[in-house]
Automatic annotation (TrEMBL):
Recorded catalytic activity of this chain's protein: D-ribitol 5-phosphate + CTP + H(+) = CDP-L-ribitol + diphosphate
Keywords: Cell wall biogenesis/degradation, Nucleotidyltransferase, Teichoic acid biosynthesis, Transferase
Recorded GO MF terms: 2-C-methyl-D-erythritol 4-phosphate cytidylyltransferase activity
Function: Catalyzes the transfer of the cytidylyl group of CTP to D-ribitol 5-phosphate.
Family: Belongs to the IspD/TarI cytidylyltransferase family. TarI subfamily.
Pfam families: IspD
SUPFAM superfamilies assigned to the protein according to its UniProt record, in alphabetical order: Nucleotide-diphospho-sugar transferases (SSF53448)
Name of the protein in question: Ribitol-5-phosphate cytidylyltransferase
Gene assigned in the entry: tarI
Gene3D superfamilies: Spore Coat Polysaccharide Biosynthesis Protein SpsA, Chain A (3.90.550.10)
CDD domains: CDP-ME_synthetase
Native source species: Lactiplantibacillus plajomi
Site (Positions ribitol 5-phosphate for the nucleophilic attack) location in chain: 158, 215
Domain of life: Bacteria
Residues that bind CTP: 7-10, 80-86
Length: 233
């Protein structure tokens, strides 16, 4: 079976003094979360679309979905304390609700990337049906420097550098086994879900993203997103 999981568990601390998590803020007249869910409902191959929210906001999210999304595949559940806790909460829900099958895959996506395209979602599905893990990336435009504080330690070759986006997609059986094999220190080091599979020795396939598939994290990002929606309209 093919699942989508929309990760809406963040609190949005970098958005500043706002009354709610950033995924519920309004973009062009409706919540960012709803924009994102709508993109996934366009893909008929998803058996279920799981939206994972902060526990205190599950009721609010369910109300929004009931009012705006006419698709019985969409389910809203509570997430965990951190991103990968939230990811695994969604996986656990899938396994408990639909059972476990060797060929199950999941396409995971940030709730605050509302400009994901049908092509990106399609490419993730096609890739994850053949590979254990998939990451959506765009080539790095600027030179990347690595270092700490004010000192540069290394300048990698830009041609081999990419910026990670989402969706990130996984064969569920591989993801669950890889996460279970990590020790506490490895779990604490995770800054990206694909690293779960990398640490377990599994290859991660890359698919092409788009520069406009950006994450709305700060007030500036929200202004850019609003301008982009207005221009498209």
């Amino acid at each position: 079976m093919i699942y989508a999981q929309i990760l809406a568990g963040g609190k949005g601390s970098r958005m500043g003094n706002v009354p709610m998590p950033k995924q519920f803020l309004t973009l062009a007249g409706k919540p960012i979360l709803i924009h994102t869910i709508e993109k996934f409902t366009l893909e008929a191959r998803f058996d279920a679309i799981i939206v994972v929210c902060p526990p205190d906001w599950v009721s609010h999210a369910r109300d929004l979905v009931a009012k705006t999304i006419d698709d019985p595949r969409v389910r809203v559940i509570a997430g965990g304390a951190e991103r990968n806790d939230t990811l695994m909460k969604g996986i656990d829900y899938i396994q408990r609700t639909f059972g476990t099958h060797d060929d199950d895959v999941v396409v995971t996506h940030d709730a605050v990337r509302p400009f994901v395209t049908e092509r990106i979602i399609h490419d993730n599905i096609e890739a994850v049906l053949k590979a254990p893990a998939v990451d959506t990336v765009v080539p790095a435009i600027d030179t990347i420097v690595q270092g700490q504080t004010a000192t540069i330690a290394e300048i990698p070759v830009r041609e081999t550098m990419y910026q990670g986006q989402t969706p990130q997609s996984f064969q569920i059986k591989t993801l669950v086994a890889s996460y279970a094999a990590l020790d506490d220190a490895q779990k604490a080091s995770l800054s990206d879900s694909c690293k779960i599979c990398l640490l377990a020795g599994h290859p991660v396939t890359m698919v092409r993203g788009e520069n406009w598939n950006f994450k709305i994290t700060t007030p500036y990002d929200l202004r850019v997103a609003s301008a982009l929606v207005e221009k498209r309209a």
